[in-house]
Design a protein that fits this description.
- The protein is α+β, with helices and mostly antiparallel strands and about 160 residues long.
- It has two domains: about 1-30; about 40-145, Nuclear Transport Factor 2, Chain: A (Roll).
- It has helices at about 1-30, 40-55, 55-60, 75-85, and strands at about 90-100, 100-110, 120-130, 135-140.
- It has a four-stranded antiparallel beta sheet, with helices on one face.
- Strand 1 (about 90-100) and strand 2 (about 100-110) form a beta hairpin.
- The longest helix has 28 residues, at about 1-30.
- The radius of gyration is 22 Å and the shape is elongated.
- The N and C termini lie far apart (about 90 Å).
């Protein structure tokens, strides 16, 4: 009889833990990120990445500076749709460094591992921005969020 009460308490505890885990999982899924202020380079990069994630390609395209080789909106949309599978499991925008009219923002891409004990890896690259008409605009981003052919020097 005493073991039945003990077993019942263990089962109730397990059910409670599963319920809490499910609650946390589903509430975190509904977290909606908002766009940030664009007065700092970090905010521009964050907004660019968020727009890509939401599929708002026209908004993301608006953050790109008028660089040589800038794609048309259609080319941009096609390239980003193809690259979307390579974004990684998480992206974080961290430190920024401003040097006059140029800024560098760290973009951290987290790739998940392939197995239970494989932690994956973090890749840190820079986004480069320049101040144009008082606003920060992107002139380069890490690969999955950018196509290198967009701002290559013209060969003469």
């Amino acid at each position: 009889m005493k073991q039945d009460k003990f077993l019942t308490r263990i089962i109730i505890g397990i059910v409670a833990l599963v319920a809490i885990a499910l609650l946390v999982f589903f509430t975190r899924q509904e977290t909606i990120q908002d766009y940030q202020a664009e007065d700092q380079p970090r905010g521009v990069v964050f907004n660019y990445l968020l727009a890509l994630d939401k599929g708002e390609y026209e908004k993301a395209y608006g953050y790109i500076a008028d660089i040589p080789g800038k794609p048309t909106l259609t080319q941009f949309r096609q390239s980003m749709a193809i690259n979307k599978a390579q974004y990684g499991t998480a992206v974080d925008v961290s430190e920024q460094t401003i040097d006059g009219q140029t800024a560098y923002v760290n973009v951290v891409t987290v790739m998940s591992g392939g197995g239970l004990f494989n932690e994956g890896y973090r890749n840190i690259e820079n986004a480069t921005l320049e101040k144009v008409g008082g606003e920060w605009r992107i002139i380069s981003m890490p690969y999955a969020f950018w196509s290198y052919e967009w701002n290559q020097p013209e060969i003469k």
